[in-house]
Amino acid sequence: GANYLRHDYTGLTFPVTDSYNDVTYAGYSENKPYTQGRADHFALSTGLGTNIWLTKNFGLGIQGDYVSTPVDKSRLANFWQASASLNFRFGNRDKDKDGVLDKDDLCSETPGLPEFQGCPDTDGDGVPDKDDNCPEVAGPVENNGCPWPDTDKDGVLDKDDACVDVAGPAENNGCPWPDTDNDGVLDKDDKCPNVPGLPEYKGCPKPQEAYAVEATGALK
């Protein structure tokens, strides 16, 4: 950082010497023109430090700096400094003790999770209770935290079921297989879905050849 530094040499009765540049501040004989009686300096501070927080509101700090005066070509006013500090935070309350400060907590009266800005997720479904229509039962975000229903109990969720009120297999999108000709053979297995037939003929009527075979057998 940058700062302003003032030195007052007017009360000194002995020479002030810069051992680096052999410049004497005597009051002021033999002084270099650019340092004659200089008491004011623009100072540049460079350093490194760290803060160690022992609790949420209390911590320790340490820092080391080198303070230089770039405008003053002598290095009389340059120095190293080290500091230690006690750090306190004020105003950062956490009423529900969930680790999320009240100023950032959308549910400051109820313990919650940091990823939901301090709000709870009771059923653990990834939808915070404040946005969950079913906070006690896990469900997907797409259904506002509620499980998808299965009205007809056929194992096909309503969102995927083309016949939500009638049980049917998943292979037919939750709808029962039709039997258009009502012959007891489902259309998916019926070779003649529009004509009543027999199961042994895959839903088709008994062929004429079968009648002929039966008649021949009866005559023997």
UniProtKB/TrEMBL annotation:
The protein's matches in Pfam families, at most eight in alphabetical order, are given as: TSP_3
Q: Name one GO biological process term.
A: cell adhesion
Listed A to Z, the keywords are: Signal
Gene Ontology molecular function: calcium ion binding
Q: Which Gene3D superfamilies does UniProt cross-reference here?
A: TSP type-3 repeat (4.10.1080.10)
Know the name of this protein? OmpA
User: Upper taxonomic classification of the species?
Assistant: Bacteria, Pseudomonadati, Bacteroidota, Flavobacteriia, Flavobacteriales
